[in-house]
Design goal:
Radius of gyration: 20 Å
Shape: globular
Number of strands: 0
Number of domains: 1
Number of helices: 16
Structural class: mainly alpha
Strand content: under 5%
Helix content: over 70%
Order of helices and strands: HHHHHHHHHHHHHHHH
Length: 350
């Protein structure tokens, strides 16, 4: 009897690790390994998804929306499928007490674990969101889940390498320094906001998950959760990507030397970067194109810090996983980090 009980979690772990390793190798690790050589030799990883080879985004229209959604979808669909698979697998294959032990406490340890676990994932903010949904459903602390969510894109090792080869290693240092503060600092701050009542409710829910696990076939429960997540997350995600694709010209109405290193432009670009949605490492060619067109280093650095971590679609996907106040703190803080990045880039003479 004891042997059977131990075998089931072990089998779940093995399946989960197999999916994660093979999926990440196919979707992320091997393609990025190859792209690193392209970045090193050509000092570019491709055209800007924001405006292609043009000097500015297209005017708002249905065609602009569809074109962006198509380009973005081609870039991220494999990672989104993997994110849904892992987000549902977390809720079925992994013992809830393990997730609670590693990521459930409200101290800095769970935040550190969440941020470090994110780094091999290398996912964009929207593809990481389903995994965050799964972690929160299994009582990961808010701070650990936030660190995991932000860490996937901000501390992506491949993107940091691309930034170095394409923009310069000083830009990598800026991104890494502020990224570490963003991921672990925001995670710690969010955990400090957890009330005693919320911690008690989380412990009670965890006890119910452990003492009264769902019966039935593991495969059937997995498929059920996967379908529920896809039906809930994908439609709103697609609609918001279409809207942002159409609104590119409004979010970035002017790109050129007129956008200088004044605070107003830095704040505007920090807000636009926080709102807009891009695939993994998409910020690198966007910033490269803007610098080439004469945009000031301050607004460019603001985009480098705010485009990857969050977006309107990814925040919308997590509205049931976090309190509105938590998501509000994250949004405002990401904008603040973008402004800080812009000011530092100017001060350091980038």
């Amino acid at each position: 009897m004891n042997t059977t009980r131990k075998a089931k979690p072990m089998l779940g772990w093995m399946i989960f690790i197999l999916i994660a390793v093979l999926g990440l190798f196919y979707v992320k690790w091997f393609p990025y390994y190859q792209r690193a050589f392209v970045a090193a030799s050509h000092h570019s990883i491709g055209p800007s998804i924001l405006m292609g080879t043009a000097a500015s985004p297209p005017p708002p229209s249905l065609d602009a929306a569809l074109d962006y959604a198509w380009a973005y979808g081609k870039a991220i669909w494999k990672a989104m499928v993997l994110g849904l698979l892992l987000g549902s697998a977390v809720q079925v294959l992994l013992p809830p007490q393990w997730i609670a032990k590693a990521l459930g406490n409200t101290g800095f340890g769970s935040v550190a674990a969440g941020g470090l676990l994110a780094m091999p994932g290398m996912m964009c903010t929207c593809c990481a969101a389903p995994v965050v949904v799964g972690l929160r459903a299994r009582q990961s602390s808010s701070g650990a889940a936030i660190a995991f969510w932000l860490g996937n894109s901000v501390l992506n090792p491949a993107t940091l390498v691309f930034i170095g080869f394409v923009l310069g290693w000083n830009w990598t240092a800026l991104r890494l320094a502020l990224g570490i503060l963003m991921v672990f600092g925001l995670g710690f701050l969010v955990n400090r906001l957890i009330t005693t009542q919320e911690a008690g409710a989380a412990n009670a829910q965890l006890s119910r998950l452990i003492e009264d696990p769902e019966g039935g076939s593991t495969l059937a429960r997995w498929f059920k959760i996967l379908l529920q997540m896809a039906v809930r997350l994908i439609p709103e995600y697609v609609v918001l990507v279409l809207l942002l694709g159409a609104a590119r010209a409004w979010l970035f109405p002017q790109i050129g030397p007129d956008i200088g290193n004044n605070l107003a432009w830095i704040v505007a670009f920090a807000v636009a970067g926080t709102v807009f949605v891009i695939p993994t490492a998409g910020e690198v060619p966007i910033v490269q194109a803007m610098l080439t067109l004469g945009v000031g280093v301050g607004p460019a650095a603001a985009l480098l810090m705010t485009l990857p971590p969050i977006s309107v679609p990814s925040v919308a996907m997590l509205t049931r996983s976090f309190k509105p106040s938590v998501l509000g703190v994250v949004v405002v803080s990401v904008i603040a980090f973008g402004v800080a990045g812009g000011l530092l880039a100017i001060e350091l003479g980038f």
